[in-house]
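PT: before anyone asks, these are the final sequences, not the draft ones from last week. 526 residues across everything. Please model them as a single complex and drop the result in this thread when it's through.
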Amino acid sequence: MAPLIECDQLRHGYAGKQVLNGLSFQVRKGGIYGLLGKNGAGKTTTINILMGFLEPSGGRCRVLGDPSHRLRPETRRKIGLLHEGFTQHDFMTIAELEKFYRHFYPHWQPQVFAQLVQKLQVPASRRLSKLSFGQRSQVCLALVMAQRPELMILDDYSMGLDAGYRRLLLDYLHAYAREYGTTILLTSHVVQDLERLIDHMFIIQNGSLLYSAERGRFFESLRQWRFRRTPQADLLEKTDLLTSVEHIGRHSIVCSFHDEAQVRQALRQKDVALEDWQEIPLGFEDAFLSLTGKY
Amino acid sequence: MKNTHASMAVRGLLYKEWIKLRYLGLLPFALLLIALGDSFYDMHGLKSANGGQALWHAVIFRSHMPFEPMRYLPLSSGIWLAAVQFAPECLNRRLRLFFHLPVDEHKALCLILGLGAGLLSALTGGLCLAQAALISLFMPVEAARLSILALTPWCLAGFVAYAVTALIFIETSPVRRLWHAGIGAVFVLALTDARGYGSHVDGLPWFGLIAALWFAAIGNVLERAKRGGGS
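LR: through. Structure below.
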């Protein structure tokens, strides 16, 4: 089956600065995909290209079979977009928004919209501009969900939301994706929230794909160890074997996708004494930072 | 099936325009009524105070136009209607919502512009006809015809102002916005500066052509805005 999203050697830059440097990834039908990366990694540019708001300067990007910068109306009908900052028509009331959007989507599900909005306990005659940011996020998500899209793209859904609303949004998304089989691609700057949600992740750095894996495989393969810091340890640098090297206080910390024996052997070859050697469990955010670095 | 989608989409777009224009779109028509009332009392007052001769004197020597307050009505209405339609559509990166609607964006733009231009046509048409009717209450039909010739450049200025304002809202580059505003101001000022009955009559077809070109340019700017990030 053809992938829903196919980016191949994507390149783009602004004013001479290259932001995407040959980014390639594919999103297949089913599941929740996370496009992760630190600020400036190229997430927003990638999403803008996927949404058809930017034409890439190089490479190829196809969404549901169409070139992303020339999506046909019938293709756009199958894509639900949640815009960064929950951009929506503020001058309309909740009821007017629902009435407006249902004209464009033949599979519109009024009950899905109603279910989400009823929980807000605000009248449907309330203008969007009069809602709190959290309430607004729910209305925007309800508008996307009611479309019954084949593919949902959520651009930084967590922006400006407190922990409660973020959790609420994730719960709705999770249940929706399971019920309707919708494929979801999302970005967020709050990485720890995604631990339980996403099935597959793409981590991008400096405009290219750094890592791509199923969520479970990521945790199985990336491990972290701590040992006493020595002058030899201070000379360690990142290599193909050592994904990250960090020195904090009296300890050195290394991460690797390789097994423990290989890592220990590599360190010994560099005359590093492995005193107080111990494995430290990695959380999702730790693993993400180990890969991308803190700076 | 495709036709059903298209007709539903048109209804959706019209619904949104109705929400934007249902109250704010009435303001120019309210101002039109006030301006017509002022014009009527001006002519009535002139005739009552100085007799019909005073009105003839105004027409023959082009010394006074009873509809002078209407000079800037089409212009301000054009700016107002375009702002009411395009500000909520374009500000704060909302043009992205428009670009993602499952409709051909150029056809959707034509519908929005057509609606705005239609309202402006109703306003300017109403203005010309009502003013001509008012004048014909006091003077012969030839004088009423002259008044329409005097009002036409002002009405055309309204259409240019509408197109330029829409263009400024859709444009994403601040420098280009200034450029559109500057060029638009030259044409609008030339049209509203028309003084006396029948001025600019010879140049009106050219001005009409320029107004049409402004409208045609909007589609190109929309395309550029889309390729450049839809902000």
